[in-house]
Amino acid sequence: MYIRGDHAELVVGGRLDVRSAADARTVLHTAVDDGRGDLVLDLSGLDSWDATGLGVIMGAHRRAGRCGRRLVLRDVPPQMQRLLVATRLHRILAIEGGIGLESLPRV
């Protein structure tokens, strides 16, 4: 897993899972704490995430809200979009461009 960027936009790639969760949490919390306005997470390079990785995203979302910021997900891969819809988190998280429910394959 890698995360590049600053306190305004981060690019996340690889696997966001139990092995990378602690490092990702540290980077995301630092970015939230050090910036102002929206924090954009570009997920176009993300291969997969598990429940722990999704928990890291939700934790960053809550922390951003407490800091008066908004966490915005950009370029969420279709596989991850399906998980957000299945867990109904697409209703809570800000997703740039939204999720095209009609274009997602049925599972």
From TrEMBL:
Pfam families given in the database record: STAS_2 (PF13466)
InterPro entries the UniProt entry points to: Anti-sigma_ant, MlaB-like_STAS, STAS_dom, STAS_dom_sf
Signal peptide extent: none
Segments forming domain STAS: 1-107
Top-level taxonomic group: Bacteria
SUPFAM superfamilies assigned to the protein according to its UniProt record, in alphabetical order: SpoIIaa-like
Membership in a protein family: Belongs to the anti-sigma-factor antagonist family.
The protein, known as: Anti-sigma factor antagonist
